[in-house]
Request: fold
Amino acid sequence: MKLSGHELYNKLVNEYKIIGEKGIINFTLKDLTISIETKDTVGNLLQEWLKTWMMVEKVEFEENTNSQVFPDFYLDKHNQKLDLLEVKSFDWDRGPGFDLANFDSYCNSLLTTAYRLNSDYLIFSYQMKGSELTIKDVWIKKIWELACPSGTYPVKVQEKKSVIYNIRPGIWYSERSKFKPFNSLEEFLSALNETRYQYPQTRHTNGHWLQNVLKNYEEHTGVKLQVR
Reply:
C-alpha cells in the first residue's frame, strides 16, 4: 500500500501502537550472545527495524542505496520528488542531538532539488536500561517544525571554530524551550537566508540564493512561496 509520511506515522503510532513498547538489543557470533548496552547503534537498528516493519505491513517504499545521502526512504516509488522520509532517533534523557542536515550541502541542494523542503522526518525517542530499549515517543515533522532560531544565528546550527557544519533541531516538544520552532516553511527559509548573510563564508555569494531556491521550488511543486 502507498502511504504518505503522516499516514505511515498514523499506522505506526495509532494502529501498531509502538509508543511504550520495549525491545532487547543482542549480538550473536557463533555460540556467544552478548547484550548491547551502548547507544551508538540504536539509530541504525531502529531504521532497519522500520524497514522490515514496512515490508511486513506491505507499505510501498524504496530505500536509498546510499546511506550517506538524503533521504533514507522514498515512500513514492514512482515520483521521488514526493513523500521523502528521513528517520532520526535520540535518547530521551539527553534530548535531540542529531543533525537535520549538513548546512552547506543542504543550502546547495535547495538550488536544484528544492522539493526536499517538503520531506518528512520520522523521529523516535527512546530510553535504554541495560540492553532494553523503550520507545518513549514518535513524531512526524517537517524541517521547519524541528529547526529553530538560536542566540548566535537566525537558524540553530552546529558551529566549531567559526565554521558552520550542521543544522540542528530545537527541543520542539518542550513548552519551556527558549527558542521555538519556526511557524512555517517561509519563516524557516527567511531565517536560513539571513543566516547565510551573517555567516562570513556564504555572505558574499548569497545575493540570489533565496530567489533561486524559490524559483526551483515553484518549478518542482507549482507553489509560489512568498518569503520576505
